[in-house]
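Lab manual, section 2.4: Encoding a predicted structure.

Procedure: take the sequence of the chain (563 residues), apply the prediction step described in section 2.3, and record the output as structure tokens. A sample record is shown.
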Amino acid sequence: MLRHVIALVFIVLVVLASALYYYYSQHCVNQVTFLISKSVESRTNAPSGEAWYDNVTVRINYTVIDDPETLSIAREFIKASLPLPTCLDKKQLTDWPNVDIAVLKVIMELVNNGNKPIYYITNAFCEVCFNATVCDHRFKPITWRIENPIAVPEIVAEEGHVFPLVILYTLDLRYRKVPPKTSITNEFYYIVTKPFRGIIKAAAAVCPEPFSGECRIIENHTHVYVVNVEYSPHTGMNIVNTFFSNKSFVLNLSAFLYNITVVMSNNMSISIDRNGLLTIYLENRGDRVYEDFSWVLQGYRPIGFPTRFKGTLNPRSKVAIYRAYLLDIFNRTGEYETIIMSSEALMFNIPIYSHEEVLKLKELAPRITPILRIKCDEPRPKVCKASLPKYSLYLRASVRLNPEELGSFQIIKKPRFINVEILRGINQALKLINDSKTRESFIEQWGGKNVTVIALYINNEDNENLTIVDWSGYIIHVVDAHNESTICGYGIITQILKPNIIVVKPKEEKLFSLHIVEYREGELYIDGYECGKVKPGAYIIKMSFRTKPGIYVEVGVKFGFNK
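Recorded output:
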């Protein structure tokens, strides 16, 4: 008998819970309301000075999702939801099955920057269904479910429409703790028409303690824009001018000439001062204050560039994300390309009205690709899809030698694991030679002569052994620093059956090679090899060794000038 009574009570509780759960869906309510006094809600009676809620913030961020897979799910969801309930229709005339749409991903974060925990008022969960009784999760992420939601955002449309969602809530009351210096994040998805302009609002009820009489409503809002690019004869230039800016720099630093061109999104900027200090900024031209994304780098990677940005970006302000000197980033001659893109992308459609327009778009894209990508799938498409990262920067640097500023025996190029030392006189080099026969040979050939020694060391700065496979051969060229015409050259190639294996332990350095440069009476000699007459001027000694990994060193020299 007792078991029957318990079973009956359990059934009644289940029915009651179900009734409470679906209460809101049947009445088309789209937000939870808590009983908070008017004075607290309006914050008119807030005490002066810093209060516990001064360090509590609601952050709102959003991303526009326009990829074909998500849009296909959204359209299927719309079809399954129609016709809309009377209370949700509100006499809108939007042709939802045929209108151009996008999906908004809204990120809401409750941040506790204080030194004490706070509590926000919530319920067990809320979720989206495509009708009042069925929650089919085939339509994820449109049919989202949030456990212990901070609040449900409200989107106010100023241009365009928001597809009305049936949002179900449980009616239980809970207090969820947010520890000091932490945050809670919720993600919501909404369908909007394109173009769209509006405001995302959110209000969270927070308390210093559960069931406290000092609860506060923490509110925030952000503006949202979803573009729909219409094609015109000037669409190519409109895209460039709307999303990108250009900048160029020409600098003379040490012995290098830098010619730098930058194409970047309008929410990024760059500066280079006269000392060659390069600074890259993120700019906030809107109302959104928080960003969290990873960087994608292609091409040459600037030394020390961060892999991720996570932080506060105040409205109408900018923050430096990277600083480095050009001489550290590009420390040798050559052509460099660096593409820096945020992981989040903006996507939009470009309507096409003629085949000629497709050709124009395909001609445009390579000029600024891969920052801007335009894809036209069909031979004669009606719409081409365009995408670009939210933050992007394309940097192209040409680094040339400036012979006029070239110092005597200045290192121009070398691998990271090679150190170069310039020694004046043969006596300095003899200190590095342990073999007695080699020492005697050096003294016999160069003793007492005015020579310069180029010493190469293998330097291992890593935490693992560095192994060099040496096939005992090298080639040396001397070229004019102004036009790179060859003055002379020689090489030593030995036929050996087994290479020499050089192992350098972590944080150690080993002598690899010594080379003797002698200039007397207008004649140049390298390692005893006679280059012949060399006019006074600036030259480059290029040394290439038969090793794996390869060792290639360039040293700038000046002959015939008073030291």
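Check your result against the sample. The two ends are 112 Å apart (CA to CA).
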